[in-house]
Amino acid sequence: MADRALPVLEVKGLRTVFRTRGGEIHAVNDVSFHLERGELLGVVGESGSGKSVTMMSLIRLLPAPPADIRNGEVLLNGADLLKMTPEELRKVRGAKVGFVFQDPMTSLNPVFTIGNQIMEPLRAHMGMTKAEAETRAVELLDLVGIPDARKRLKAYPHQFSGGMRQRVMIAIALACDPDVLIADEPTTALDVTIQAQILELVKELRQKLGMAIIWITHDLGVIAGIADRVMVMYGGQVVEQAPVGELFANPQHPYTRALLKTVPKISGGREARLKVIEGQPPILTQALMACPFRNRCEYRHEACDKANPARRAIDGRPVGRGHDVACHWHAPAAQEVEHA
Q1: Count of C-beta atoms within a 10 Å radius of residue 212
Q2: pTM of the full predicted structure?
Q3: What residues have CB less than 8 Å from 237, skipping those under 6 apart?
């Protein structure tokens, strides 16, 4: 039985490298974080920041090769997923950890009915009979707001709209009552009205089921509305982490500040220009020996070129438990830079 005092998920020092013909790509660099029971952790950053690769590394969904998880621990209820055999890991995926992908059309099998795809994990992980799995599948479709649930079990993915397909993906991910649900930009391909419906659905399900959720997105507006805590990633590492209200009110990393400035505002008038972050993300062909954001940072100074800063607490609480940031700008020797 899981220890209720432990985080449901704890990640320590995770490193993932891709081997390519042109050399190694250091995609995930010493990532550590935790997820409490019933908590929603938002993971934000621009494309290429390492969000999705990090989360797929947790349950070893990346093809190996080319992916190589070099280091780390991924403790789910105290058990290290990185040390499990393939058979042990298959029992975890879908049963203990549910995953909702960005594009439901490519995630659902077009030649199987919706009912078959929901019933499969129920029979594989929970040992249900066909009749029991069918009853549970109807309950799940009802839960995610699909009308005429029993009738729709016989439908195929192409007979559903984009929003309904995403609801089906959520139903599949919830089928075995997982401890953790990982949602990888699940509303990106949907129009804003359907996106709002899916977000409202997630809020309702979280309240009803009490599960822990990791929500990956590049949309800070989404995170503001649903998250308890936010983890900002850049260059394959965590650069800032804080409770959601604290992050928006008091962003400390220059990258976080730049991201917040890119959010469109309705109060700027017609002449207001949308802010952009100048420059390009780093190409991670080598292990990080310096700050990955230094070439795009307005506060760059000598220390940024000499070492990659470690995460440090800025509110007196331990790293990962309050507000922390990985930035030389906040090192005691660099405080004067802020006022230079």
Answers
A1: 22
A2: 0.89
A3: 28, 29, 30, 31, 50, 288, 292, 308, 326
